[in-house]
Amino acid sequence: GESVGLHLPTLSVQEGDNSIINCAYSNSASDYFIWYKQESGKGPQFIIDIRSNMDKRQGQRVTVLLNKTVKHLSLQIAATQPGDSAVYFCAENPGGNQFYFGTGTSLTVIP
Amino acid sequence: GAVVSQHPSRVICKSGTSVKIECRSLDFQATTMFWYRQFPKQSLMLMATSNEGSKATYEQGVEKDKFLINHASLTLSTLTVTSAHPEDSSFYICSAVKNTDTQYFGPGTRLTVL
């Protein structure tokens, strides 16, 4: 796997609004993608995944969209709540034990 | 889901001592585990890939003699920070791979070296 130690971009949303977090991936051979949520002082937590034979997958209040043409992944959070405040990472897996992480986005929910 | 644990969750040690961090996959077997380091407000930085029964693969710039990794079984990998110094203070996170494609992360270990 790879990751880059960069400072995180931030996103602020009002409580109750929908949030959209974007991620551009690099490897056109990647066929499996995961979104993780990391709260302060904790390890990343699996949220939702999607395989390349799909372009949309829904979970509870979350939806992941995959656009393979432009190598873009997004995470939509409906009715954002204060508990959603965290850093969100996308990860791509081109196969085997290779994992590539995005830089992450820090989401702040304003009450 | 899958559960990965780390122990200890927090450790404070004196400069020059060695610290061992354990990573366990509790309900699945993991032939591969990863070790990451994370600084405040930054992304995960991969340190090494740990494969059960073989030597770990270290990322460029990570000293293998400084960060000893042992993957003794399909459910346990350990990271030992040898002769720790204040600059080694960080948040260390492990992950374990389930079914060859999904990583599940541990809760992290906060290391503070005085």
Textual characterization of the structure:
The complex is a heterodimer of chains A (111) and B (114). With 111 residues, chain A is mainly β. Helix content of chain A is 0%, strand content 54%. In chain A, strands 1, 3, 4, 8, 9 and 10 form a six-stranded mixed sheet that branches. A four-stranded antiparallel sheet of chain A has the order 2-7-6-5, with no helix packed on it. In chain A, strand 5 and strand 6 form a beta hairpin. Chain B has 114 residues and is mainly beta. Helix content of chain B is 0%, strand content 55%. In chain B, strands 2, 4, 5, 6, 9, 10 and 11 form a seven-stranded mixed sheet that branches. Chain B has a four-stranded antiparallel sheet with strand order 1-3-8-7, with no helix packed on it. In chain B, strand 9 and strand 10 form a beta hairpin. Chain B is globular. The chains are: A mainly beta (111), B mainly beta (114). Chains A and B meet through strand 3, strand 4 and strand 8 of A and strand 4, strand 5, strand 9 and strand 10 of B.
Structural class of chain A: mainly beta
Overall outline of chain A: globular
The percent of residues in helical segments of chain B reads: under 10%
Average residue pLDDT of chain B: 93
What is the helix tally of chain A? 0
Radius of gyration of chain B, Cα only, in angstroms?
13 Å
SSE topology sketch:
The complex is a heterodimer of chains A (111) and B (114).
Chain A: E1 10-14, E2 19-24, E3 32-38, E4 45-51, E5 56-58, E6 62-67, E7 72-77, E8 86-95, E9 98-101, E10 105-110
Parallel strand pairs in A: 1-10
Antiparallel strand pairs in A: 2-7, 3-4, 3-8, 5-6, 6-7, 8-9, 8-10
Chain B: E1 4-7, E2 10-13, E3 19-25, E4 32-38, E5 44-51, E6 57-58, E7 67-73, E8 76-81, E9 90-98, E10 102-105, E11 109-113
Parallel strand pairs in B: 2-11
Antiparallel strand pairs in B: 1-3, 3-8, 4-5, 4-9, 5-6, 7-8, 9-10, 9-11
